[in-house]
Amino acid sequence: MFKTLYARIAIYSITVILFSALISFVLTNVYYHYNLKASNDAKIMKTLKEARQYEQSAKPTHIQQYFKHLGQMNYQIMTVDQKGHKTFYGEPFREDTLSQNAINNVLNNKDYHGIKDKPFALFVTGFFDNVTDNTVGINFKTNDGSIAVFMRPDIGETFSEFRTFLAVLLMLLLFISISLVIASTYSIIRPVKKLKLATERLIDGDFETPIKQTRKDEIGTLQYHFNKMRESLGQVDQMRQHFVQNVSHEIKTPLTHIHHLLSELQQTSDKTLRQQYINDIYTITTQLSGLTTELLLLSELDNHQHLLFDDKIQVDQLIKDIIRHEQFAADEKSLIILADLESINFLGNQRLLHQALSNLLINAIKYTDVGGAIDIALQHSHNNIIFTISNDGSPISPQAEARLFERFYKVSKHDNSNGLGLAITKSIIELHHGTIQFTQSNEYVTTFTITLPNNSH
């Protein structure tokens, strides 16, 4: 129905104002009917009886002149003689609705309480109902016989100036209220429109233009979080671009190398060279296959909602299996692997945890000097499981240390790895609600420390 939030809020607010005014009128009418009507009737009846007492004591020569004088004092009067002749004084009634039965009762000396007995009408206030049955009536004795006198205050005349004042007041109230509603609605909608434009810029790929935080309410909070989201999306977009560039580079370089080797293979007839080219191509394709596997694993970790972490893992046995699997590579460099492992159970994803710990051991074997040693320890406390792996080797610069867990980052340009191992390890550990830290001592001993929650109890 409403195409803009501005129109919706404005219409809702104006509707509330008008509805409140209507309800207030109805409630005021109900209050008059049940609380004021009887006292108003009694007050007017008292005034009329005092007028009768004055007329009887003063004996004015012309009763009509007396009623005319009362009419000039802002009363509306109707007199009915025994012949049914009606005379009106003061401002005319809007309508003569008085029944003949009520007139006869007053002529028979019965008081009439039309104001008190006026039926309730939801949208008509009896206080302002200018008709003859909304009066009080008593019997007057005159020289010409009894007459029925019906009287009510002339509300229209009495409150004419007040009604003008009230009408102006209500008009100003509505005008100012509606103007303020429109202005306040605009103040709400204006930052929302700016958010809409900023969102459209985000859709177009503009992550650099911030929006100014102009408020401290919920909209201000929304502006703040929008800027945070914009910054995060900008970082994600940069990471995506870098990721695509890195993947392209990691694939393009070996493919170029393979293309070159195939050209050489076609042009040479030397069996030894041909076998060497074939072996090189096999090595490169194996590396490409490993890169593809790790990229798929990264994608799986980034979209981890389907992963389960309910395997019951004997962590010390898992580490022993990894050491046994990598023992041949360690033996080739005459490395000693020292393992101090406590018996620990852990609830997680065994396949992923195996991958994470394998990456660390493979790295340690790769960067440990020939004849060196690798120390592995597994301990636990009531709250945590702590795994450490240390090795001695070449020092790592502070700049390299800060980027160690970035995807595709390589400490050395001569490194033939794809730079994904530690990034994968970090993602796996974080999915297990753990942390991984790197430290380096003065003796160039590097240590990776993994801390996992002890969830086995």
Automatic annotation (TrEMBL):
Protein name (record): Heme sensor protein HssS
Keywords: ATP-binding, Cell membrane, Kinase, Membrane, Nucleotide-binding, Phosphoprotein, Transferase, Transmembrane, Transmembrane helix, Two-component regulatory system, Virulence
Topology in membrane: Multi-pass membrane protein
EC number: 2.7.13.3
Annotated organism of origin: Staphylococcus aureus
Broad enzyme group: transferase
Catalytic activity: ATP + protein L-histidine = ADP + protein N-phospho-L-histidine
Domain HAMP: 186-238
Purpose of the protein: Member of the two-component regulatory system HssS/HssR involved in intracellular heme homeostasis and tempering of staphylococcal virulence. HssS functions as a heme sensor histidine kinase which is autophosphorylated at a histidine residue and transfers its phosphate group to an aspartate residue of HssR. HssR/HssS activates the expression of HrtAB, an efflux pump, in response to extracellular heme, hemin, hemoglobin or blood.
Gene3D superfamilies the record matches: 1.10.287.130, 6.10.340.10, Histidine kinase-like ATPase, C-terminal domain
Domain of life: Bacteria
This protein's GO CC annotations: plasma membrane
Keyword Transferase: yes
Domain Histidine kinase, first and last residues per copy: 246-456
Pfam families per record: HAMP, HATPase_c, HisKA
Membrane-crossing residue ranges in chain numbering: 9-32, 165-189
SUPFAM superfamilies for the chain: ATPase domain of HSP90 chaperone/DNA topoisomerase II/histidine kinase (SSF55874), HAMP domain-like (SSF158472), Homodimeric domain of signal transducing histidine kinase (SSF47384)
Compartment(s) where it occurs, according to its Swiss-Prot or TrEMBL record: Cell membrane
GO MF annotations in UniProt: ATP binding; phosphorelay sensor kinase activity
